[in-house]
Each structure stands twice: as C-alpha cells, then as structure tokens.
Amino acid sequence: MPQLRLALNQIDARVGDIAGNAESVVRWTRHAAGQGAHLVAFPEMMLTGYPVEDLALRSSFVEASRSALVELAGRLADEGFGELPVVVGYLGRSHDARPRLGQPAGAPQNCAAVLHRGKVALRFAKHHLPNYGVFDEFRYFVPGDTMPVIRVRGVDVALAICEDLWQDGGRVPAARAAGAGLLLSVNASPYERDKDDTRLELVRKRAQEAGCTLVYLAMVGAQDELVFDGDTIAVTQDGEVIARAPQFAEECVLLDLDLPAAPAEAPAGRVADGLEIQHVTLTAEPVAPYAPQFTGEVAERLEDDAEVYGALVTGLRAYVEKNGFRSVLIGLSGGIDSALVAAVACDAVGAANVYGVSMPSAYSSDHSRGDAADLARRTGLNYRTVPIAPMFDAYMDSLALTGLAEENLQSRLRGVTLMAISNQEGHIVLAPGNKSELAVGYSTLYGDSVGAYGPIKDVYKTTVFRLARWRNAAAAAQGETPPIPENSISKPPSAELRPGQVDTDSLPDYDVLDRVLEMYVDRDQGRDAIVAAGYDAELVTRILKLTDTAEYKRRQYPPGAKISAKGFGKDRRLPITNRWREGEQNA
Predict the structure, then answer these.
(1) I need a labelling partner for 296 at 20 to 30 A (CA). Which of 3, 198, 237, 241 fits?
(2) Could you tell me if 152 and 85 are in contact, meaning their C-beta atoms sit under 8 angstroms apart?
(3) DSSP 329-391
(4) Which residues are catalytic?
C-alpha cells in the first residue's frame, strides 16, 4: 500500500491579519517539510481567521484573501516547498452564482485550496453551511457544489470543510463514491463543554460512512467569544482512533499512514447530493517505501473541570493578545467570582500583568478585605487599595440616595474607579459577573458590569465554585500555592452593599437556581416542562421572569468565553422589548 506522511497543523489564526496568517502557514510548512511530510494541511479559513462575520461582505477583504492565496503559493515555491502540497482555508467567492434576493452580495464562499508548484492547484467551497447556534453562514456564504479529490503520491485524498462532516449526505458519501483512500476535513469548530465526546463519535461514524481513513484537523485559540480547543483526530475506516492532538495547544501532528492505492482511472461524474467530482492529480507515483516514524499518539483527555478552565484561560489570553493589550485590571472584592477571574487572568497573561484593586466601602467586611489581600499574596499579582467611602459620602451629601439606589451607587463608584485606572495606566478591565447573575439581572449597570471582557460570563455560579476548588487542587498536586483563599470559597456569597447582605436574600439557592436556568437558558425549555421536572411552580415563574426582564442588562455586558451549548451572546438572541412571559396568559 502507498505511504503518506501527513502534517496536520493545529494552530491559531487572527481574524483580519491576512499577512500574519500567511506567515504562519509558511513557518509551519517549513517545519513540516523538515519532518519529511508529503501533504500539509491547515485549518478552515486559516488565511483570514474565523469567523470573519460581515468582513465576508466586503469585496476589498475577499479580494485581499484571494490575492494573498496566490502570493502564498508563489512564496512557498520560492522557499523550496513547491513540490509539497499544502491545503489551506481562505475566503473566496463564487464566479458562477448569479445575484439574487437572499444571497449575500458578491457570493462569498468559505473556501479551501491546494497549493502546489507555485500555483493554486485546486479550489473548493464548503458544501454544507451551518445556520444555527453561533453560525450565520447562510448570511455570509454561498455553498460549494463539487467533491474535491487530489491525488498525492498515488493516493486519492478527498477534501471537506467542517460542517460537511456534521451534516448527513454530501461529501462523506461522495468520498466513498469517489473511491478515496483518505478523507481530510479542515475545521474551525468552536469549543463547548463535552463537545469532544460528540466530535469523536461523529468522526468515527463519518469514517465508516466514507469507507476510508478520516482526518479531522481543527483550529485552536479564540476569537472574541468563541474558543477553539483543537482536538485534531485521525481514525481508521473502522472508527479506530490512531491519533489525537491535545486540547488548547498549537501542534503539528505528524502521522504516517498506509493507504489504498488510487485507481488507474481517475474518478469522475456526479455523486451524492449532485456533487461533481473535481479531481486533480498532483503526484501519481507512490513514495519509495520507508520505515514509519510517526505512527500516531493519542493525547490524554482533560477532565471536565480542567477542560472548562483551559477554555477560559485560552479565551482571555487570545482576547488580550490579539487586541494588542499587555495587562488586565480586576476589582478584588474577596469573593469567589473576582478570585476565580484573577486566577484565570494570572494563568492567561502572567501574574506580573494582572492588577488587582480592592475598593472597600463602609459595608466591606474585614475578612473580605483580608481575602483580597491574601489572593494577591498567593498569586503574586499587583495589588492596591482604593477606598470608595470618601467618594460615596460626597455623592450621598449631594443626592441623599436610599435603598437600591444607595447600594448601586457603591458598585458604580467602583466601576468609575476601575475605568479611571484603566484609562490612566492602559490595562483592560475584566468584568467578574457569572452566568447565574447575568441570567437574573443580579448585577449593576455601569458598576460591576464595566469592562472589556467577562471571563466567566458563561459559567454558572455552582461551576464557579467547582472550578475554584479544581484550580486549588491542581496547584497543590504540583506543589504550588493554591491561588484562591479557602475563605473565598467557603463563605456565603455577598455583594456587601448593605449590612449583613448575602446573595440568598435576593436569589434562590444557587444549586436550584442554576438547574432551572440550565433548562430555560441552555435548553430552551418552557415553564411547564421545568415544573414537570420537579421544581416549585412559583419559584420557576419568578426565576423565568427575572431572566426575561434582565435582557437589557445582558446586551450591555462585555464579551466573554463561550463554554456552554448556549451562552449569552450570538447563540441566544431575544428581544429586549418583549411582553411574553412563560406561564402567563398573553393577550
């Protein structure tokens, strides 16, 4: 059987940085060539980054991507890699699509190309376009209608892009019909909790359907709210895992494969879903037999809490670095949320680049102030104290506020203080709100909601506690100081805006609240279904009303890493002005 050495580059890309992304392709191709690779591949839309959103509708951006692709092919050849086929994703357009209502102007396409001998040897576009969750690809792209197959070293390799595997039909059965010896899919599949298990089962199933070895190459890194965990997978046609890359890490996965020889006559014609086989022979002769060096490694999977924590770190690090910042600023209350955010920040950008500010008021307890200082000592972050009592007294003398207005004033003074320091010193502020609080509106606009990024905005409160315990245990297991004070974990959560205040004065117990919210927010289940699951009807009605009426606050909250099936952001879009209430009679 012919042999083939693949170089699967599980790497990051920056949206809009076409020149920088092309440079990455050259650098990683150079490495792959040095390892004796016969075929090199990069993730979906590698040249432009993913997702490009409305940049896809700008002709100037599309043309820049297309031009860069041609230039990249030439540069690879100039550097001596012309004989090495390189598969790379980019933003292209269809020349066949006619303008019509409902189709994106200019007919942009989510494309990939094969670069060989200084030329673009083959171009193809994603066939299945996702239009659910965080995806709007019907808005941006027109689908491809071919079944691309390249002959490399005597092996026919079928090509696909991400959603082409997630949907039935199309390129998977077409690969079987074309008699491909390998199906290579390039992807930018966003992370969400437990998706690695779903992804593995999908890849196994599709390999069996395609009747050949299948390689799923994934992107790693983050873009705005989306995190990409990598998890590149290779399986045999029987579904046996032969290689799997680690999560949240850039890596070139090298893999030696024995694959079926391509048929003497190149496949042609139309196959599944009317796709027309697009076959290009790059190199027909197999390589001389060699002793395999890279027989596949299967990286150990992260446990659930480690995986979620890794996603939070990856999301924050990418947001800071890709937007040109060097340091972050956090208001440290001594509570669990700001403590977890600080730990994530230290792991993401280094403690030397994390600045914490304690802003005590007359209602701040001694233990909370002490817990904030203890966190700073444990992590080594930069720490200062700026009391807000004098500012608070000045406002109260002028406004004479009471009740909730008085409580919120304290939070807003802290927000003003953080933004002032941010403007003065150049740090970006991190908002510490969690998903439970955002769901029911338990936050203050222009107070604890200020910031450029919310690292735990998609993390329920119960998970916040679990992650804090996991992070401390992980540190202890490595002989390091646990970063989060035990008192921050064990004491009852409190905003400390009035004497003796605790969260449960206003909210149900978090164990109950989070289970109800998970059904309502993440799974879109209505009041009746939640009550039928065993929850008190009055309590459910109250939680759902709080959630519905807090939509205006969530719209004004900063972005943050998405880790759940449905976060507050792109994949949950509800009207702010909305009279519908679950369980109430609507006229």
Answers:
(1) 198
(2) yes
(3) EEE--SSHHHHHHHHHHHHHH-GGGEEEEE---TT--HHHHHHHHHHHHHH--EEEE---HHH
(4) 44, 126, 162
Q: What is the pLDDT of residues 144-171, one digit of tens each?
A: 999 999 999 999 999 999 999 999 999 9
Is residue 262 within 8 Å of residue 281, measured between CB atoms?
A: no
Question: Structure tokens of 358?
Answer: 């304690």
Q: What is the pLDDT of residues 31-79, one digit of tens each?
A: 999 999 999 999 999 999 999 999 999 999 999 999 999 999 999 999 9
Residue type, 345: A
Hey, is 221 helix, strand or coil? strand
Q: What is each CA distance from 413 to 84, 178, 317, 327, 338, in whole angstroms?
A: 60, 66, 28, 22, 17
Sheet holding 3-10, edge to edge: 119-125, 108-116, 86-93, 39-41, 3-10, 251-258
In angstroms, the CA 84 to CA 151 distance is 12
Neighbours of 465 (CB within 10 A): 18
Supply the Cα-derived Rg of the chain in whole angstroms.
Answer: 26
* Type of residue at 400: A
Residue 256 neighbours by CB under 8 Å, 6+ apart: 3, 4, 5, 292, 293, 294, 295
- Measured at the CA of 137, the angle between CA 62 and CA 18, to 5 degrees, comes to 30
The residue among 555, 547, 507 whose CA lies nearest residue 527 is: 547
- Distance between CA 233 and CA 260 in Å, rounded? 20
Count the Cβ atoms, other than its own, within 10 Å of residue 538.
Answer: 9
**What is the structure's pLDDT at 587?**
38
Q: Which amino acid is at 402?
A: T
Give φ, ψ of 467 to 5 degrees: -65, -35
The label of the residue with tokens 């299967």 reads 298
3-state secondary structure of 418: helix
Are 153 and 38 in contact, with CB atoms under 8 Å apart?
A: yes
* 354 CB-near residues (< 8 Å, 6+ apart): 327, 328, 330, 342, 345, 346, 379, 381, 382
The answer to whether residues 72 and 115 touch, using CB atoms and an 8 Å cutoff, is: yes
Q: Centre a 10 Å sphere on the Cβ of residue 263 and count the other Cβ atoms it contains.
A: 12
Residue 65: CB atoms within 10 Å: 25
DSSP bridge partners of 114: 87, 122
Contacts of 324 by beta carbon, 8 Å cutoff, 6+ apart: none
C-alpha to C-alpha distances, 522 to 168, 188, 193, 440, 578, nearest whole angstrom: 25, 22, 12, 14, 19
Reduce the secondary structure of 445-492 to three states and give it as a string.
CCCCCCCCECCCCCCCHHHHHHHHHHHHHHHHHCCCCCCCCHHHHHCC
